[in-house]
Write the structure tokens for this entry.
Amino acid sequence: MPRPSPAPIALLVPLALLLSACAGTSSAGTSVGGAGGGTDGSGSLTLEVGDQRGGSEAVLRAAGELDDLKYKIRWSTFTSGPPLLEAVNAKAVDVGAVGNTPPVFAAGAGSKISVVAASHGTAAGDTILVPNDSPLKSPRELKGRSVAVAQGSSAHFQLIASLKKAGLGFKDVKVKYLQPADALAAFTSGKVDAWAVWDPYSSQILRGKKGRVLTDGDGLVNGLSFQVAAPGALKDKKKSAAISDYLRRLRKAQDWVFEHPEAWAKVWAKDTGLPYEVALDAVKRTNGTRVPVAVDKNVVTSEQEIADTFTALKLIPRRIDFGDFVDTRFNGDLPPSTTKPRTYRKES
């Protein structure tokens, strides 16, 4: 396969700085916010929140949902879901956001975690990308080809599901376990034939015209993302009340993103270093489609399928019952998880 020309450095460098919800290693970074998101919150309780760059803190602040807090928030920044969940298990973080696959791996490792909230969006941003000049036209043609993917990420399961739909098994491809920065370099230099990844990486490659979508996860994977809490924090009456308030604010912020996609894209771009056009593409394709939903039986069943898939492949050490890692006390009157994702709404 011909080697594609490298993408411009200015276009690709921000990707190495992004903090994804799916896989990677932790990043040192802690800040404290109180009323209005400042450092002088009057609340005596401090909620330890795991976050990613351009994540919960950014959207809450943009939506004005950090105003009038009756507790402080200490934000700890991670590059991904797995290390964030390690911190939850270690009781260093009370609650934090992850994608649909890291909780399965954490549960398989025996971590003490509780899924307390969910959102449902399209999986159109979960893609398998190939270079523009690749001869591959369908997922079935991936047989014998090399595919980069982050182990334990949402893209990992999307790759397995896409191969299965095409009549292939996981062993039919040459899997290269690479974190996004390394996978990006391998993809743009022609060292791998395909890259299974998520937004905003998908949008970055497509906007930069450095690749095309071979297939995506829309209608194939569940499109769920979660807030995961430490069981010990949930047993603390005051912290549980703070988590409830925090989740309510996040739901309102998600509604704000849907009503103000362009405004959110500007904030997201500034916070992550992404070009605005890429951020807006990712909002349209993925980020702005999310709907807060109940953590219900359908969530458990869907996540159990992911868990059983990785167990069968011996990628997690034991079978788990995902329902054992769910706490439904914060569902309230949220719609069921089968609620259709939103569609992009242009601001007037």
Residues 26-122+223-325 form a domain with the D-Maltodextrin-Binding Protein; domain 2 fold (CATH 3.40.190.10). The chain has two domains: 9-16+123-216, 26-122+223-325.
